[in-house]
Amino acid sequence: MKIAVLIKQIPLNAQAVFKADNSIDRAASVKGMNPADRCALLHAVALAGDGDSVTAVSMGPASAEDTLREAVALGAGEGILLQDAAFAGSDTLATSRILAAALRRIGPDLVLCGRRTVDGETGQVGPQLAVRLGMSCVTNATELRLRGGAVEARRLSTDCVEQVEAPLPAVVTVMETLDVTALPSIAGLRRAARTEILRWDRETLGLDREVCGQEGSPTRVIRCYTAESGLRTPRRLFSAVEGARAILERLAAP
After folding, report:
1. What pTM was computed for the model?
2. Range of the domain at 8
3. Any residues with CB less than 8 A from the CB of 71 and at least 6 apart, and which?
């Protein structure tokens, strides 16, 4: 079985730097692996048996190679970096188009990715990929198991937890339920250091320039700003009695 895991290198929130066009300056930002994608990778490694392969795929600048090496250190068998200047500024539509082209070359039975990325929070790429690839789709999975030609998942719905089954091939987006602070082993770090990270560009994927990057993205970011919470100055209370009195005072206020 072939398992592909989509990994995104993200700017850490507090250090994100923006360009004049309101897009994130990824080269100037402090970066790390998206937490939900890390969970997807850990699920993939746990699901893989003897003879199965786990391929980590990332679209991004040259610095994303570091994140792919981290994925190899955590158990992926290989890493593929989708890198091309034409990919810069892609929205979810263009991103799913580029990733789908790469996945068709890999031919996975199962595609795992995080349910969201913390720098975008759309949750759109996974389902878009499933449509483009003609695969089953499960979202918000917390537990995964392979049985025969299907993937069984426990998933979080709006008001309940569901147990579902989807035939392979499938795309599954996972939630941040595993220990994302787990560190790679020494053997994993050594393996990552000597593993060649493959690089595929637009021509490798057979994509026209106009369907990639900002040119192929209908989404435009008009403005970025920090929202004000509007919260009042907090009060520090040191006992349950003080808390109860404060609540009563607030309820009695006009």
Report:
1. 0.81
2. 2-228
3. 5, 7, 33, 41, 56, 58, 79
